[in-house]
Amino acid sequence: MTQLSAIAKEQGIRFFLIAYTDLFGILRAKLVPASAIDGMAEDGAGFAGFATWFDMTPADPDVLAVPDPDSLIQLPWKPEVGWLASNPWMGGKLVEQAPRNVLRQLVDRGHSQGLEMQTGVEPEFFLIQADGTAIADPADRQTKPCYDQLTLMRRYDVIAAISDAMEKLGWGPYQNDHEDANGQYEMNWLYAPALVTADRHVFFKYMVRTIAERHGMRATFMPKPFTTLTGSGCHAHISVWRGGANAFKGGDALGLSPLANHFLGGLMAHADGLCALTNPAVNSYKRINAPVTQSGATWSPSSISWGGNNRTHMVRVPGPGRIEYRLADGAVNPYLLQAGLLAAGLDGIAEARDPGTALDRNMYAATSGADGVRRLPLNLLDSVRAFQASTSLRAALGAAFCEAYAKLKLQEWDSYMRYLTQWERDSTLDC
After folding, report:
1. Residue 335 confidence (pLDDT) above 80
2. What distance in Å separates the CA atoms of residue 65 and residue 168, rounded to the nearest whole number?
């Protein structure tokens, strides 16, 4: 195996960022000189796990983040720095609650069945003022600004810099657009195996924020930063491959195979519990349960449904051989997005789950409970309770991870419930 120090010498890397995401998706890192990287590659960089969002105590030993050389990305705007995703260890064992480790064990399980999930993600984000109070472009005021060329090109310098960076990294960027909300953008790059997509997604969020700051702005992936505007989703396009061929391609009316339908059945069966992973913030539920926005639609699912090329469903089938999961939002931990999809999908395949009938109608106009369609959870507490109740997700994701994640998310909910809002004062002072 080529040593990272040799790669550093060949590519002009002076420092490496050894990084991991904690349970809340926050990117943690240490900056390591190239002269010390080979020792870190063998032994790992030490972190105090309790100081990040892991279910640990100050008495626990160091979390050792062992970098994955295959994940190396040179910062396009500072190529003397190389970024490395890492796998956390502690006490000679992989940290079971670490999100990248959870995804890796699910990827390995799929491989043991001859299956590889490939995904592409569509992260939406806002470019806002540095203080976070308003969008960065005060002239972006249309009621329906989606795809507007003028507002897109006013942010050409930022969008082009991000797109050029992805091109340089070999990700295959292929389109960028102004999204449905004022100040909101989406950038797309080619699909890849789930772990590769997750690593790139983690780096993309860091890259977008960094480049925005370099242009005097702030980028946010917050699901619902503005009450009247459409929230930021993170749609995932999914296919599963076997022996180098797309095993989702089939001959049914929507071009899906039986395997694809069973995978889809798993997503439908576990939608409530998956929400805790794919919509992990208190704010997430102000996107998926939002009233109509000023553009005329939220573009977010509100029910557990699926259908053809219809964007009002939780799962859309845009064409043969792939499905689009539209529930996840910008707050999602990239590793847990992929892990949740794969866990539910593999369970669907193992249990030959039926996704139910594809519906061909506007789900935003549907009556709650019509056709047996279930509503999505109304808040983070409901989704975490559904997550805790799912024995299938617990078995697939691992008990240690599930317990740690649910514990910290319930603490987050309790913290939110201790906060007194102005709405409560306005509505209740004269009760």
Report:
1. yes
2. 27
